[in-house]
Fold DUF397 domain-containing protein.
Amino acid sequence: MERNVWRTSSRSGSNGQCVEVRDRGVEIDVRDSKAPTAGTLRFTPEAWTAFTGTLKAGAVE
């Protein structure tokens, strides 16, 4: 993942229900693509790996 650049998931459809992710090295930022100034969630790289691993495993719906 290129650092400090916002990107949209390749799984996002054309319905506008998207999140954007940015890797800043020390933190991973996540925001709503429809409201980018509304706030940002921040994860440590370790927490991001755990979070995405849980999603990929299907443990969260």
Summary: The longest strand covers residues 19-23.
